[in-house]
Amino acid sequence: MQTAILPPVFRSKVIGAGPENDLSSQIDRERLPRHIAIIMDGNGRWAQRRKLPRIAGHRAGMRAVRQGIEACSTLGISFLTLYAFSVENWKRPHSEVKLLMALLREYVKKELEELDRRKIRLAVIGRIRELPLPVQRDLQAAIDRTRHNKGLQVTLALNYGARTEIVDAFREIIKELKENGALEVDERAVSRRLYTQGIPDPDLLIRTSGEMRLSNFLLWQAAYAEIWITDTLWPDFTRRDLFQAVLDFQKRERRYGGLGIG
Length: 262
Ligand code: IPE
Ligand code: IPE
Ligand code: MG
Description:
Blueprint: H1 8-15, H2 19-25, E1 35-39, H3 43-49, H4 54-75, E2 79-86, H5 94-117, E3 121-125, H6 133-146, E4 153-160, H7 162-180, H8 187-191, E5 204-207, E6 226-229, H9 239-251
Parallel strand pairs: 1-2, 1-5, 2-4, 3-4, 5-6
Bound molecules: 3-methylbut-3-enyl trihydrogen diphosphate (IPE) (2 copies) and magnesium ion (MG).
One 3-methylbut-3-enyl trihydrogen diphosphate binds next to helix 3.
């Protein structure tokens, strides 16, 4: 095999050459989406199809999270936002919510080392203070530990709802208005008071499991995001799906209401 005569840096590339690496090699590294946001949906259905409890689907979904993060980090994406728990998800049975919170803690503890090794910065958006205290503590520890990392920023949307976020931004604006007497309210002013301040708007929004809706995710920020929906259920999502989404993104013409370049 040729690989023996190649220097190690090339050798690893050849050894890893599988179908997903073929896909990844087609991606134009100069035209990557800066920010990818994912609605990770379909865990319950994945479990149901296997006659397993829903939580087994959430656990399997953690593997997909690992793959998605790894793929974005390897590609050189700057921001990845993962919708993990919505403000509406509290409507689910208490037992499922409790297990989801436990899984979240388990995930953060288990993955922290690897996230840090990859120079990933962890962040959260949502009404974090309403999450159980042990969850908040573990999240905070992971955020503190990875704060200075300069690689991919992974933002977990937890107890997140876009309408709640916009309401919170309005409250902030009104508060500042009362304090300062005057305040210019334009698009930038609103953006800067959202949970996502400092994060660019998503360029590519992925949803798994085939639902054609936003489910209260990044309603303001996704105004011009390219949307990519796959029937794949979240636990079956692999780096190959992510590469496919990015390749598809690179074929799109983003016009922002103008006439484009053609
Ligand atoms: C997404 O999977 C994970 C969360 C919302 C926490 P679901 O649990 O919504 O799975 P389905 O949509 O019922 O299959
Ligand atoms: C969206 O999925 C929320 C997350 C992925 C965390 P849901 O399963 O809650 O959304 P709906 O109910 O299908 O709209
Ligand atoms: Mg769902």
